[in-house]
Amino acid sequence: MTTDTLYGERLSNDTVRIERQLPGTLQDIWAWITENDKREQWMARGTLEQRVGGAVRLEFRHKDLTYADDPAPPKYADMAESAVLQGVVTACEPPRLLAHTWGGQGEVRYELSESRGGVRLVITHQRLAGMEDMLSVSAGWHAHLDVLVSRVQGSARPRYWALHTRLEAEYAQRLAG
Q1: Nearest by Cα to 175 from 111, 140, 132
Q2: CB under 8 Å to 60, separation ≥6 — which residues?
Q3: Are 87 and 103 in contact (CB under 8 A)?
Q4: pLDDT tens-digit map of 50-76
Q5: How far, in Å, CA of 71 to CA of 69, rounded?
Q6: What are phi and psi of 125, to 5 degrees?
Q7: Which residue in 7, 45, 24 sits closest to 139, CA to CA?
Q8: What gap in Å lies between CA 167 and CA 59, rounded to an integer?
Q9: How many helices (H) and strands (E) does the chain have?
Q10: Pairwise CA distance, residues 73 & 11, whole Å
Q11: Pair 99, 108: CB distance under 8 Å
């Protein structure tokens, strides 16, 4: 993927989509999304029941995804230690599709397909309340996926909050209009 295709795209006034090409198999990447011990290494720990109607409870501990000298910006200070999101699974077709509500910020859909000897992961976040949510979610998914890539590849993780801050400014330019 080129650098430009790493960015999410605005599909409508309330929907953004982002994708990554990852090494591994469908089962490998499905595990990174659904298994707590793997998911907490790149996004959030908690419950994710793999059935329609199943409970979703994700606890984001961003400080565990970055370094001690990379504090949360003031805008996200309330998320520095822990932030909890609850939802319900709306679609589940292992290992290719998972969708669930995202607290009060719409619905997230993870679609996996075999591609170029690895896995293409497409995340679509829809029913966002406005541009501020779209910018936060776009930068958040982008940064979390960069952490996922580092984990899957076994490389050094990025500085989460520094990356998120830069990306949020870039998405403000990219998604405007």
Answers
A1: 132
A2: 43, 44, 79, 82, 83, 84, 85
A3: yes
A4: 999 999 999 999 889 999 999 999 989
A5: 6
A6: -115, 115
A7: 7
A8: 22
A9: 4, 8
A10: 28
A11: yes
- Peptide bond between residue 94 and the one before it cis (omega within 30 degrees of 0): no
* Model pLDDT for residues 113-132, shown as the tens digit of each residue: 999 899 999 999 999 999 99
The separation between CA 7 and the C-alpha centre of its own chain, rounded to angstroms, equals 12
User: Can you read off the two tokens belonging to residue 78?
Assistant: 């309330």
Q: How far is CA 118 from CA 19, 94, 110, in A?
A: 13, 17, 16
Q: Give the tokens for residue 56.
A: 């979703």
Do residues 98 and 89 make contact, with C-beta atoms less than 8 angstroms apart? yes
Taking only the tens place, the pLDDT of each residue in 119-177 is 999 999 999 999 999 999 999 999 999 999 999 999 999 999 999 999 999 999 998 86
CA 30, 17, 79, 54 dihedral sign is: negative
Instruction: Name residue 126's beta-bridge partners.
Output: 107
